[in-house]
Specification:
With 149 residues, the protein is an alpha+beta fold. The protein contains six helices and eight strands. The relative contact order is 0.11. The model has no long low-confidence stretch (mean pLDDT 77).
Length: 149
């Protein structure tokens, strides 16, 4: 069993202008771990005989074990960043709340926007997709593209 040191991890990073420590090793694309799909962009490495996200390894090496039920979250929102100063522990709910506050994800700023990406007013011309009410769409854009007759 290999236990990596802080110095080893630091040898595999490059510091950018924002202070992010960008992982230069393997970066996963649509990895399935424990039956869940992990979004692309996170660095991964072998640690304690398993495949770990590098930001979780960095947290473990610098701060100790991650308590059950908590996630290692990024303040900088850069998935490849492993800077311990940019990492914090939080619940899934806290991580999602942080995402929404920063305008990322389907329930962030784009979802609250009153216009579509072409500038049509969604509140006047309809906000829901005719075939799936969960989808956000613009009726004018759909008519232009021949999707609604």
């Amino acid at each position: 069993m290999v236990h990596y040191s802080f110095e080893f991890l630091k040898s595999k990073i490059v510091v950018d202008s924002n202070g992010c420590w960008l992982w230069q090793g393997y970066v996963a694309h649509d990895v399935v771990l424990k039956g869940k799909t992990v979004q692309r962009g996170y660095g991964f490495m072998g640690y304690r005989s398993k495949n770990w996200a590098v930001h979780r390894v960095m947290w473990t090496v610098t701060n100790g074990a991650i308590p059950a039920g908590l996630q290692v979250c990024h303040t900088c929102d850069v998935r490849r960043c492993v800077n311990p100063d940019h990492l914090w522990l939080g619940t899934n709910r806290e991580n999602i709340t942080d995402m929404v506050k920063k305008g990322r994800g389907p329930c962030g700023i784009k979802a609250a926007s009153p216009t579509c990406k072409r500038g049509h007013d969604l509140w006047v011309h309809g906000r829901r997709h005719p075939f799936n009410p969960k989808w956000r769409s613009c009726v004018i854009c759909q008519r232009i593209h021949g999707r609604i007759r």
